Amino acid sequence: MTMFHFFNCAILTFGPHAVYYSATPLSEYDTLGTSVKAALVYLGTALVKLVCLATFLQVSENDGFDPYQELLKALIGFIDVAGLYFALTQLTHRNISQNHKFQAVGLGWAFADSVLHRLAPLWVGARGLEFTWDYILQGLEANANLVLSISLAALGSLIWLRKNKPKTLIPIIYACAGIVATMPSITSYLRRGLGWHFPKVVGFELFTSLVMAFISWQLFSACQRPST
Amino acid sequence: MAALKKSTELLESVYSVVALLFILVACVGLCDAAAAVDVYRLIQYDMSGSPFGSRFAALNHHAASLSFPPGADLSRTVLIIPLRELNITFVREYITQKKPLGGLLFLLPEVLSFKHGGNKQVHEKEKMKKLLAELERLLVHSNIPYPVYFAFENDDIDTVLADIKKNDAMGQPATATTGGFKLVIPTAEPKKVVSPTITNIQGWLSGLKADGDANQLPTIAIVASYDTFGAAPALSVGSDSNGSGIVALLEIARLFSLLYSNPKTRGRYNLLFGLTSGGPYNYNGTQKWLRSFDQRLRESIDYAICLNSIGSWDNELWIHVSKPPENAYIKQIFEGFSNVAEELDLKVGLKHKKINISNPRVAWEHEQFSRLRVTAATLSELPVAPELFEGTGSLFDGRQYVNETAIIRGVKLVAESLARHIYGHQGKNVQIFADESSLAVNPAYIRSWLDLLSQTPRVAPFLSKNDPFVVALKKELADHADEVNVQHENLEGIFTFYDSTNARLNIHQVASVTFDLLLLLVLGSYLIVLFCFLVITTRGVDELISLFRRPPSRKVKTA
């Protein structure tokens, strides 16, 4: 029965990634290699981040919200953006369109994030007898994260790869990318600074991820129009 | 070639490491319970081959409270019964009619636990004592085919119980399909205790021999049985039975060692102190101890005083004997005691109970002496002989039910009458152990030993030969006596005991199978909807329809 629960939570956490890959044209153009490369880049980025966090961050005894520390954490979080930049621009892909490239990168990125952050707690916790909503919420969080990663990759590809984009949209693109990139810090603030509970935070994440996805989509199609 | 071999070897070692890692990960942390409490199992034993007590230890069942809906199937349910809600007729009905149950968990009030109760007063003392005694009698003498545990109430378990009650009141008994709380005790099958040992400790204080006197000095024995037996062996501390006897014996030994250390006050009697084990099992240890004496020594014993349960009396103690009261020795002992008692303003009564040799039951320790024709008496607060396994360290027999001043008075009574006998002051009004003198009874000593005994379970089969408690007793007696011997014997006879006396209970809040099925359904439909949505937005509706229409042809194309 507990194995059953683990199975359920795993479906919720990792299922959407697989569905995304198979349902979108990504599978038709065989972009798995790109995703795997992006995942590897994520691993490297995570390692660098870990080293930075360990070097610059003090271990706080209390669980409170320290603005300075959080700012530092947010700055370190921008290493993610650098990693994404590397994955989007420096990796030589087979000739796939920009459209598919950012999706493949975002997907690989989100999947690696889920595996790294959620698989171990899930395996340890969800198989136990004790029932909590935490692992289901965590699965939902993984969903939100997938959407956010793809949005960020989309915005990144707009910034770095697309040369002829409408001038008026550029500040909006940058602002959106900034918001998406600082999402981890925002949720951390909500959780610890304002003391929100986990379900509320997850709800917020789901909501913002959908909003950001919609905005990114609109921006992307707006940028695409003049070029075509 | 060699390099290849090396690399395969390396690969194999890597595989084994990976396999080990997986095993480790698989074992990691399955103990994140909502609450974990220490629980104490009902004793499990065989008497003449017939099984008694709780026959199982492992537990993995849902929990229910007493307010379960009538007619519910409880065969896979643990009933949690707090002592204050205990309905003894209900439990008796369940046990005697052998109704199916998954298990029983009795919650004892926290005040009874030495650790948390401290010296807090117990409310409704007598009522609780009666209830517990009745429950214990029922449980110890029944064969119960499921695990029975005791636990002390605390906040964790109280909140869990409140939740369970709420569920039960709504008419939802906890089963696999409705969730609720699951009680898990992961222990192995209880094993027989192989050849349980009993350890007797004896200490000698030798008297002063007159010059040229070749005859052996007469001996007075002071004896107390130190082990216990109770419904829960891990809780059987027996502060009164017979912790009070041990404390009194140690204090008497201390007082006389003071007297005997000075040649001027050294009496012409040897004093023999015996701490015997096996008391609940018809004083099996006492019997073995006495048999190990040689004939001359046994004959030199003038009389023996056995101390048993002298910690919670008000004004009356009893001297139990098995020889008729008209016997000269008995008369002498009784007169000695009653004279001192009069001065101490308390009453001592004499009770005579004949020994029936054919009956294997030995109710008093002195009966083992009497069977070997040694004059002996038992000093006790109990007016009648206890039945088998009663008055030997029950659940309620804790520190709260013992009165220090009663023990002090008891010690005074015994020490004073012994001293008068030894120094030949019978009938005279001299106080040897007067208060405020250097020979006064030390209340702090009594209190500290009583506290120690009240937190040390002492069920003989679970006390090893070199248990710290036995070692401590031996050391304490060695401080007061000239010569201390320890005798290890096998507990023989009709009893077999089983281990795993205490365990840790994990209480998990569990989801039901129905919930997980429902969740799977919801997740499945979510993924399908997501799939359709993504196909429609990225490839269009036609693609989705065609996807369902011609998957085989696509396969052919790719092939």
TrEMBL record, chain A:
Protein's name in the database: BOS complex subunit TMEM147
Membrane topology annotation: Multi-pass membrane protein
Pfam families: DUF2053 (PF09767)
InterPro entries according to UniProt: TMEM147
Family membership noted in the UniProt record: Belongs to the TMEM147 family.
PANTHER family reported for this sequence: BOS COMPLEX SUBUNIT TMEM147, SMALL SEVEN TRANSMEMBRANE DOMAIN-CONTAINING PROTEIN
Subcellular localization: Cell membrane; Endoplasmic reticulum membrane
Taxonomic superkingdom: Eukaryota
